[in-house]
Amino acid sequence: MAQENKAKASEVIARLDRIPIWALSYIFIGILGVGFLFTFFDIFDINVSFIQTSFVLFHVSSPAQIPALLGPIVLLNLIGYIIGAILLSPLADLIGRRNMLMITMAITGLGSLYNALSPDYLNYLIARTITGVGVGADLAIVNTYIGEMAPMQARAKYTNFVFLFSTLGAALGIWLGLLLTTPPAPFPLGLPFALGTTGIFATDGWRIMYGIGALLALIGLLLRIELPESPRWLLTKGRIDEASRIVSIMEDKATRKIGKLPEIQRDITPVVLERISFLDSMRFIFKDPRYIKRLGILVSVWFFGYMTVYAIASGLTSILAALGYPPPEGGMITALGVIGFILVPLTGMAIGDHLERKTWTAISVSLTILGGVLIGIAGVSNVPLAVIGSIILFYGFNLWVPMSYTWTAESFPTRARSTGFALSDGLGHIGGGISVIVISGVIQSLLSLGKVTTTIVLEVFIVIALFQVISTVIAVIIGHRTANRRLDEISP
Question: What distances in angstroms separate CA 130 from CA 43, 124, 159, 292, one per listed residue?
């Protein structure tokens, strides 16, 4: 019977791997995308709005004090992220991708609602930590799900397709912060119609933003009910007939789109397990030298890369304010920089699968350095150049992320894919938490030397980019290749 199950499972995997296109309704991409929209809204909504939060709720007296308050908040948010990624997302290897996607979205929405109601700094910290738990688990599981459902030749393309919604969430978070929490200022120094000094928005604009986040999470949760389970996961649980039915639906849809499908390969033999626990997944990764090595490489890449990502994603407006930019102007430079972020998934969808995943890290860091240098040269007086620099900066520090999401999901076998992704991405986020505190210390040290100069601004952005340089060197020199190969070939 066991041998017969293996043969049936082998045929299901062979049928799935021969499908050359996305063979589910594109509505499912949208459903996953709405969830990503919310999670990135939550990551970026603090960028601009935190200035108002600091003045109103934390009673700071100067923008220079804000980075020191932001550091612990980002750190605890990312500690929550790590907890969610390492402890919750591996449950997707136990109870299923779809079920955990429902749970993680509920946790994230509750955290955002708590943020909206926070009465003080301590509760704000706790709320951001809870939200981080949900976000950390959710991102790992979504990328695992996409990696298992997308065609072999287009895993990066469809990861970037979903990531497109992330850019919309980031843009929404930043622009709503600019609209609801900053005072009006003539464009391009701010938004002439900003509401940050009007009525309820003067004190509670930031609360409204988190309330919007909770509503987005509820929408994402309701939509995810419609998602089918991953056939690859069903096979690891011995649920072969269910997996076969889902693959049949995918085959029918693909046939209607492209006609005859390629021939089925017969030489694939996946392992079929009746039961697998979190500890089983962990043991599987740590007993195999190949996966231990991959885990070490990916944790290092994410750790140093996230140091750059979170310094900018969570703190760019606060950093600019501390360096002498008026908050509306700093917010506008950040908000327009999101144009570069939106270009990231469009690039990945067009040519993401044409290069090895690790090659994108080198392209990405070059643009991060260029964007930071342009902002430093521009200074407070040259807003157009600062905006151009911000666009390039956002394009650069984000370009490697969806490619590395794809890379990480490909690097572990189905029975431990969520666990492997969670460990890599989750432990890597420790770097993101550390970076904001490090950059805050660098800024405070430089400001203690006297007046802000172009040299000081350049030094800040060079330090921020340096972490991504380290990440890139690790990826390029010792990173493994995965592009355009079957998942069972890459990670048997």
Answer: 13, 10, 26, 30
